[in-house]
Amino acid sequence: MQAMDDMALLREYAARNSEAAFETLVSRRVGFVYSAALRQVRDPHLAEEITQAVFIILAQKAGRISDKTILAGWLFKTTRFAALAQIRADAKRRQREQEAQMQTELQPTAPDLFWEQMSPLLDEALATLGETDRQAVLLRFFENKSLAEVGNSLDTGEDTARKRVARALEKLHRYFNKRGVSSTTAIIAGAISANSVQAAPVALAKSVTAVAVVKGSIAAVSTLSLVKGTTKIMTWMKLKFAVWVGTTAMLVGGVATVALSGDGSGSATGSASSAFQLRIVLDAASGNSETLTHSTTNSESGKVFNETLHVQKKVLLDQSAIASASVSTNSFIGQPIDIVIDFTLTPKGKEQFAKVTRENIGRRLAIVIDGRIISAPVIQSEILNGQGQISGNFTLQEATRLAAILNQPAKN
Q: Which of 235, 263, 296 is the last residue in one of the domains?
């Protein structure tokens, strides 16, 4: 059993309900999850509950997680979502209480002033990195893998892994410096390697396994509530399409035109003339694809990166699938309030989108506006709830106009 890697253990559990495989996996990763939770909530008891919730979700989703998933990255994001759900729940509870209770202050295990300053910011800083850069840092410094092993995990060479890690450390360096934590990339690397993964409480791995393998059916009410809140955040984040466009790109003749709908079956009902389209990215050019350029801008350096993608001509979703859209705000810890558009799909659209995501797990979904790719995220799992968000640094006026367009009946 010890020779099996993480994904093999997860597959063994998913296929044969092997508690031994899941227990081995938990034993390997419980310190990683517990440490990340502890950095964010600063309370050992809450960190244990978050750890429990993360592994319950892992057990629930074991059969649907792609073989290409880097588990460290999945656990990091899920732990962050669980910590966010826990912090939000605590904030609501404090509002109902007449007197605020003092929170437990965690005493560091070693007198490292820099780590004390950096630790509360670390998970937010990691969350600002791109997915691959973050995975490189997690593999290199949280799991102490060599650069050759990092490159192998990311399907790149050792030199590419070295450059990616160096670039990620430089981004972390700038992030911490802007927040008054002065350091060097070498100090950051050393501090993370030495302190990022702490030993979890001795009994935690066994208690986590016992509850998780039965999908949380014997978990405490507070843990089940945390699982529900975390799963909700995960679903929202999978549907939060990053529409990074400026006002001029959003406007056509002074009016924003966006559409969303779909047909997950073989023949698409989406309109090829829709300004907003969801289409699958193919691995290679074919008679059913067209070549489009996906441009992204690094928010820190301002550099533009161009990627050529072969996008399926068939439109999977257009405006006819939308039941309603409205303007709201979204805020994450340490980040400014983001004006977003919440949307709900029609019953048919919900069914279609679930089918599209179910049948294309691991593939990229191109979000095309006016013939231009705005984003191309990877579909991580089936999305069932038929709800989502569109964000794009909108002003209130832009978001209101866009929501109005989404609420208009689809044109045939």
A: 235
